Amino acid sequence: MHTNDYREIKAAVITISDTRTEATDKGGRAVMEHLDDCRIEVASYQIVRDDFKAIQSAVTTALSQVDVIITTGGTGVARRDVTIEAVRPLVDKEMEGFGEIFRYLSYTEDVGTRAMLSRAFCGTKDQTVVFSIPGSVGAVNLAMKKLITQEVFHIVHELNK
């Protein structure tokens, strides 16, 4: 199906970073550009620090306001990377295939065996889908172009049946 077969959807973009600002948030900007290309309205954008409670608060607030939430950053294996741990308890259903396919594409197209460090995540809560992707522009472009923009309309449609 084409995107215009579905209703309009709204998105929240949340960048997780202790160092990025709106001026330096290339990953968040790339997410918003991909959404704009698909005519998905970005209803909110914010940068939150790499902090479990701050991430949960931002995602919880957005859950009641949008159809899709995309977090970028904080998905690595460093001690401060807690995005997945913060987001996972907030969803009802996890879509494991998203992370699996993201790592496969990362492995074959870009980063090789370092792809195993990527903890890209997707899950749903009620009628909202939540994607958590790494913060690098390359990872954002891969996730948005090859996965998220290809399926987000269909996922939201399924959640609203």
TrEMBL record:
Coiled coil: none annotated. It comes from the Bacteria. NCBIfam families: molyb_syn (TIGR00177). GO terms for cellular component: cytosol. Pathway: Cofactor biosynthesis; molybdopterin biosynthesis. May be involved in the biosynthesis of molybdopterin. Keywords: Molybdenum cofactor biosynthesis. Gene3D superfamilies: MoaB/Mog-like domain. Belongs to the MoaB/Mog family. It holds the Pfam family MoCF_biosynth. Residues 12-155 form the MoaB/Mog domain. PANTHER family: MOLYBDENUM COFACTOR BIOSYNTHESIS PROTEIN B. One of its GO terms (biological process) is Mo-molybdopterin cofactor biosynthetic process. This is Molybdenum cofactor biosynthesis protein B.
